[in-house]
Amino acid sequence: MTSASQHIPKVVFDNLEHLDNPFNMKVFDTSVFFQSGETIPSKSDTDYEFAWKFLYSYNGSSATFNSYRREIERILLWSWHIHESSVLDLKREDIEQYIAFCISPPKHWIGIKNVARFKLMNGERLQNPDWRPFVVSVKKDEARKGIKPSTKDYIFSQSGIQATFSILSSFFNFLIQEEICTMNPVALIRQKSKYMKKQQHKSPVRRVSNLQWEYVIETIEELANQAPEKYERSLFIINCLFTMYLRISELVADERSTPVMSDFRKDVDGNWWLHVTGKGNKSRIVTVSEDMLNSLKRYRCFLGQSPLPITDDMTPILPKIIGKGPVTSTRIVRSVVQDCFDIAYNKMKEHGLEEDAQELKVATVHWLRHTGISEDVKTRPREHVRDDAGHASMQTTDRYIESDLRERHASGKNKRSKNL
């Protein structure tokens, strides 16, 4: 590692709203990313140009853009500062070295919290000194105990390794299509499996138990009756996430779409559906059950609207509490759901069920989607659940059909080894 590579790397790509269209640009200069004395690879400007163009092609979804930006930025920084070469010159063995680097990066490349890339200072956007290409974090329950993240606890997860292989392979295929390079070094790695831990069983679906869900829904419903101005929206949100197993991004407004009340629509048979723009900008319709329809009516009456929306009702499904327009931050929804989990956890503790409540301390918003699917797949045709969930394949839905681990253990708990 060169002395220059001891410097903290600089941010390469800004957020989407601050990123110009690279297809309208003529000059790409990478010199700003290098410290004095560092060698600038001869084709780094070309790396920068086509990495920018590749990423800009994903400007239809901020979540996808952010994931791809993270991987492309890392490979650029490693190639330029560590390998001291253009990305275009990387071979199969170089990619293997890069993966090893990602598994164990230097400490000064690792941050201990997610931070904004830039800070506004005196009207100028300057790199946040706390930003790093890699980040380590602690679990929610550990954070509550005051445990602070440390760079020594950094782990490059199995899902992270898979994402790196997938995104880099797409990037090199893009470069081949643009006739910038002639081969995909990622595709040439035949022993990708050596970086992956083999598991005899599939990872269990993370979900809340039936008991935990009963406490969540019943407790928040009770609070909504007592203090509707504080908890009616919470009740509606958790019903949407569980009953229709929506992704959190499908409830808030972003560059893809703004969910509005008229997205709830009745067909010619009198059946209600929610029209959703989901993952990968794919549209789908989701069954609205009778319970969900009643939840919608209750929520709309709280908002001072008619019980059911009409065709041209452009009211945001989740309007801001302060100000006008839709909620645009997933953080707000996460905070609402976390509050619901915390309240239910405390209620279970009061009832002497602290051990049964433990998972609510680490549960996330996405667990409600998993829970809803897991319950529905027990009684509904799996292709119906697949379509409502927006799964790309039946294989994904089949994960939820597998025996629940709690039930599996319960069925084997009383196996006897003597006195048969």
TrEMBL record:
<dbReference type="InterPro" id="IPR002104">
    <property type="entry name" value="Integrase_catalytic"/>
</dbReference>
<feature type="compositionally biased region" description="Basic and acidic residues">
    <location>
        <begin position="378"/>
        <end position="390"/>
    </location>
</feature>
<feature type="compositionally biased region" description="Basic residues">
    <location>
        <begin position="411"/>
        <end position="420"/>
    </location>
</feature>
<keyword id="KW-0233">DNA recombination</keyword>
<feature type="region of interest" description="Disordered">
    <location>
        <begin position="378"/>
        <end position="420"/>
    </location>
</feature>
<dbReference type="InterPro" id="IPR013762">
    <property type="entry name" value="Integrase-like_cat_sf"/>
</dbReference>
<keyword id="KW-0238">DNA-binding</keyword>
<dbReference type="GO" id="GO:0003677">
    <property type="term" value="F:DNA binding"/>
</dbReference>
<dbReference type="InterPro" id="IPR050090">
    <property type="entry name" value="Tyrosine_recombinase_XerCD"/>
</dbReference>
<dbReference type="GO" id="GO:0015074">
    <property type="term" value="P:DNA integration"/>
</dbReference>
<feature type="compositionally biased region" description="Basic and acidic residues">
    <location>
        <begin position="399"/>
        <end position="410"/>
    </location>
</feature>
<keyword id="KW-0229">DNA integration</keyword>
<dbReference type="GO" id="GO:0006310">
    <property type="term" value="P:DNA recombination"/>
</dbReference>
<protein>
    <submittedName>
        <fullName>Site-specific integrase</fullName>
    </submittedName>
</protein>
<dbReference type="InterPro" id="IPR010998">
    <property type="entry name" value="Integrase_recombinase_N"/>
</dbReference>
<dbReference type="GO" id="GO:0005737">
    <property type="term" value="C:cytoplasm"/>
</dbReference>
<feature type="domain" description="Tyr recombinase">
    <location>
        <begin position="206"/>
        <end position="414"/>
    </location>
</feature>
<dbReference type="InterPro" id="IPR011010">
    <property type="entry name" value="DNA_brk_join_enz"/>
</dbReference>
